[in-house]
Design a protein that fits this description.
With about 325 residues, this protein is an alpha+beta fold. The chain contains ten helices and 13 strands.
C-alpha cells in the first residue's frame, strides 16, 4: 500500500476523499473535505499536508495534517474542530495505519506530532498508536477531554421519562418560567434570505457572554462562521436556529445536521434574560424538534460543561496521540 503526499489544496475537491469519508462509519461532519477546506482557507494558510494510502490505484484512506515549525497536527484546529483523524475503508484501516505511520516516521520535517480529537472508543486511535510504535516512534496516548452525546428516543415523553426526576423537573420548570414571560416563544430557523442578519444577531449574543467565551468571536472567527453558513446552509447541513418570541431573539445556536444526528456547535443567549434561562429552553426545544423529525442523537460535542449533563447527555472520552522520535 503506497503512501502519497500532496500539499496541493485542489485535493479538497477530489472525489476520492469524499468517497473515503462516505464509507467510514466513524467519520463525522468535521472529517469532510468541505469543512476542512473552509478551515484551511481561514486558519491554515501554511503547512498543508494530505496523505493518501493507496492499494493498486485506489485510495483506501486519507489523513490531512498541518505542519508548522516542526509541529505536526491533524488539520482542523483544537478550538473549532471537535473530531479529527483519518478516514477510510474499515476493512483496510489496520494496514492503512501502518503505512501512514511508517511514512510519517520516514519524514524528517517534524519534531513532535500532537494528534488530537480522536475518540477513545474509535478504532483509529489504537491502530495509529500501535503502528507508531512499530515504526520506531515513541507514542503516548493522553486525555483530550470529553464529548457529550445524547441518544434520542422516538418521543419527547420517552426522553423525559428516561431522565432522573430532578432533571425532568428542572427542564419543565425552566420552560414554564420562560413561557410565563414569553408565551409566544418558538424555534425559528434562519434561511438564505435572513442568514446574514441572523448571524449578526447570533454574534452579538455570543460576544455578550462573560469570560473567554465572549472573546471567541474575533473577526477571523466571525468570517469562518459566516463562510460555514454560506457554504452549508443550501445543502441543509448548517443550521442557525433561534428561540424567538414576537421577533425578539432570546437565544440562538449554530449546529450541523449529519447522518441522522445534530452536532450542536455553539450557542448563546441574551444575558439580560438570564432569569428565564432562554439558553436552556432553547436546547430543550431543540430536543423536542429533533425527536419529532426522527433524529436519533444530539451530539453536544467537546467541552465538559455542566449544562450538557442537565439534559442527560453522556460523556465520550476523547484522546490525543503524542508522537516523538
Amino acid at each position: 500500500m503506497p503512501l502519497e503526499w500532496t500539499d496541493d489544496p485542489t485535493v479538497f475537491a477530489s472525489r476520492e476523499w469524499a468517497d473515503l469519508h462516505r464509507v467510514d462509519p466513524e467519520a463525522t461532519f468535521f472529517h469532510t473535505p468541505t469543512y476542512l477546506k473552509l478551515f484551511w482557507e481561514e486558519f491554515g494558510a501554511h503547512g498543508l499536508q494530505v496523505a493518501f494510502v493507496t492499494e493498486g490505484e485506489a485510495p483506501v484512506a486519507v489523513a490531512a495534517f498541518d505542519l508548522t515549525d516542526g509541529l505536526l497536527t491533524f488539520l482542523g484546529g483544537f478550538d473549532v474542530t471537535d473530531y479529527m483523524g483519518p478516514v477510510g475503508a474499515p476493512e483496510r484501516r489496520e494496514q492503512a495505519a501502518k503505512e501512514l505511520l511508517t511514512g510519517l516516521a520516514a519524514r524528517e520535517d517534524w519534531d513532535l506530532a500532537d494528534l488530537r480529537s480522536l475518540p477513545e472508543g474509535g478504532t483509529w486511535l489504537p491502530l495509529l498508536a500501535g503502528a507508531a510504535r512499530d515504526a520506531g516512534l515513541r507514542a503516548e496516548v493522553g486525555d483530550d477531554g470529553v464529548a457529550l452525546m445524547l441518544p434520542l428516543p422516538r418521543t419527547f415523553e420517552a426522553y423525559l421519562a428516561g431522565l432522573t426526576g430532578k432533571l425532568r423537573h428542572e427542564i419543565r420548570r425552566k420552560e414554564r418560567r420562560l413561557r410565563e414571560a414569553f408565551p409566544a416563544a418558538r424555534l425559528v430557523d434562519s434561511g438564505p434570505d435572513t442568514l446574514t442578519d441572523d448571524l449578526g444577531r447570533f454574534l452579538d449574543l455570543h460576544r455578550s457572554s462573560p469570560g473567554e467565551k465572549g472573546k471567541f468571536m474575533h473577526p477571523g472567527m466571525e468570517l469562518f462562521f459566516r463562510r460555514l453558513g454560506s457554504a452549508l446552509l443550501p445543502d441543509g447541513v448548517f443550521r442557525l436556529v433561534f428561540l424567538e418570541s414576537d421577533g425578539q431573539k432570546l437565544a440562538g445556536a449554530v449546529a450541523f445536521r449529519w447522518e441522522g444526528s445534530l452536532h450542536l456547535y455553539n450557542s448563546a443567549y441574551d444575558h439580560g434574560l438570564a432569569r428565564v434561562a432562554p439558553g436552556m429552553v432553547l436546547v430543550s426545544e431543540l430536543i423536542k424538534d429533533l425527536v419529532a423529525s426522527g433524529c436519533d442523537r444530539l451530539d453536544m460535542l467537546k467541552g465538559d460543561l455542566e449544562y450538557k449533563y442537565r439534559f442527560g447527555a453522556r460523556p465520550r472520552k476523547i484522546a490525543r496521540l503524542l508522537l516523538r522520535r
